[in-house]
Amino acid sequence: LAHYAGRVVGSAxxxxxxxxLARRILIRRIRLMTTAVDFAVxxxxxxxxxxxTYDVFFGGYHVLDxxxxxVRGILTLQPDPTLMADVPVQxxxxxxxxxxxxxxxxxxxxxxxWSVPLFYIFRRPLVFRRKVTA
Length: 134
Description:
Blueprint: H1 2-26, H2 28-33, H3 36-59, H4 67-75, H5 89-104
């Protein structure tokens, strides 16, 4: 189940990042508001999702015996580095790139992933543009 869900979610995430990147490049109004950091974040997201999706489709490595317990160990503050010893390089690259992107996130627009904006449900809609009627 995790393997096939990874294919679906990874493909959707990779395609979504490519659409966002194309939108930032092709739409002039958005391109003018885009900074180099925005392009770096989208490039990082494209790299992380691309490598992860490649791993799911072409990697052929069983992650449930090594990587999954290692991640669980990190989350429970009891990591076991020996679990990652025999993991192929492309999987390590995916994990390292994801950690680097998470470490970079507080300094970018990705900072929003660290909050739960429940108050958005109850606030009034914001109006950014008004039609000027003559």
